[in-house]
Amino acid sequence: MTIDLNEITALMQLASPALPIGGYSYSQGLEAAIESGMVKDALTAEAWIKDVFLGVFARSEAPLWFLSYEAWANQDIDAVSHLNEYFLASRETSELRAETEQMGWSLLQVAQSLNWGGEYLSQLSSMRPLSLLTAHAYACFHLNIQSKNGLAAYAFSWIENQVAASLKAIPLGQVAGQQVLTKIRLLLPNMVEEAEQRAKSGLSMIDNFSPMLAILSSRHEIQYSRLFRS
Length: 230
Prior knowledge:
Shape: globular
CATH class: Mainly Alpha
Strand content: under 5%
Number of helices: 11
CATH architecture: Orthogonal Bundle
CATH topology: Urease accessory protein UreF
Helix content: 55-70%
Number of domains: 1
């Protein structure tokens, strides 16, 4: 079996915390869950991250990422634009929407600086506001990363950011954080397969129903003391 080292290193670059898109500054409602007392230790942090990952991310963001990648592969810019708008509309609070817009814009700056996609960059930059999901799917396609691998890198970054937020806000020790990261990471292969199947059924299988997450995120917007922007 031939291993494409260019693809592996491109994946490592996209998933690296050193990628300057600001993911470390967001908790996606986790900080509000910690403030409320719902998350208070490694066990409850693992349960929270797992529930959001499988109950929300896998059912909405992940299949939408697949659809966006497919639209880029087909050069269907109308479909890409529609999916970008759909994902932005699915963000239930202003800070969740601001998060993906800021990170999407930052990844666009990286893509432009490194000329990822060449002549296709104008199509990406024409989408305003731009979600991180759309920009990431674009980057993966134009870096010749296979869709399943690209989604795995996107999801791993999400998991890692959630664990990093737990380390800072609970706080957790480094070993406890790695234990949580390992347990959630092992769910990735099945999540990618589920997301692909949902994507094949189109938008009818996208499910973003998560009222508690939306409530906590809205509370976070007026939380008096906080470390994170979401």
